[in-house]
Amino acid sequence: MLYRFKSRATGDLVMLEAAGRRVLELLGKDPSGPGIITAAQMPAAVAALQDAVRADEAERERLAREAQARDEALPEVADSVTLRMRTAPFIEMLQHCMRENTEVVWGV
Q1: CA distance readout (Å), 33 to 43, 53, 54
Q2: What is the three-state SS of 26-78?
Q3: pLDDT tens digits, 37-57
Q4: Are 97 and 8 in contact (CB under 8 A)?
Q5: How many whole angstroms separate alpha carbon 73 and alpha carbon 85?
Q6: Most CB atoms within 10 A, among 34, 39, 57, 94?
Q7: What predicted TM-score, i.e. pTM, was given to this entire model?
Q8: Per-residue model confidence as pLDDT tens digits over 7-21
Q9: What mean pLDDT do residues 17-41 have?
Q10: Between residues 54 and 70, which one has the greater pLDDT?
Q11: What is the domain count for the chain?
């Protein structure tokens, strides 16, 4: 399954199911059906995603420090695609839509 996020101000943004679901859950949105993020909700949505990115990076750093202290290889998660990489296009879309005062929808 794919998530296709649409707005009148940008091109569509397509995410694979796992990434799209995680983003929507971080925003407190129901990933199982259609939805909307209004222009008024976007500042809080951007802040929530940025907070989640910071928490993810802190956790990755903690895991790396622990592995280094035990003289082990870095955890497998250290080589994976980060939350920052996955959310960056969505954050950019939200910021652009805020400037244009238009909503983002999915599942419609």
Answers
A1: 22, 25, 28
A2: HCCCCCCCCEEECHHHHHHHHHHHHHHHHHHHHHHHHHHHHHHHCCCCCCHHH
A3: 999 999 999 999 999 999 999
A4: no
A5: 23
A6: 94
A7: 0.88
A8: 999 999 999 999 999
A9: 96
A10: 54
A11: 1
Q: How many CA atoms lie within 13 A of 67 on its CB side?
A: 13
Strands 35-37 and 13-16: unpaired
Cα–Cα distances (Å) from 48 to 9, 53, 87, in that order, read: 22, 9, 11
Most distant CA atoms of the chain, gap in Å = 51
| Residue whose tokens read 């750093």 | 61
Six-digit token pair at 107? 């599942």
Cα separation, 35 vs 70, in Å, equals: 45
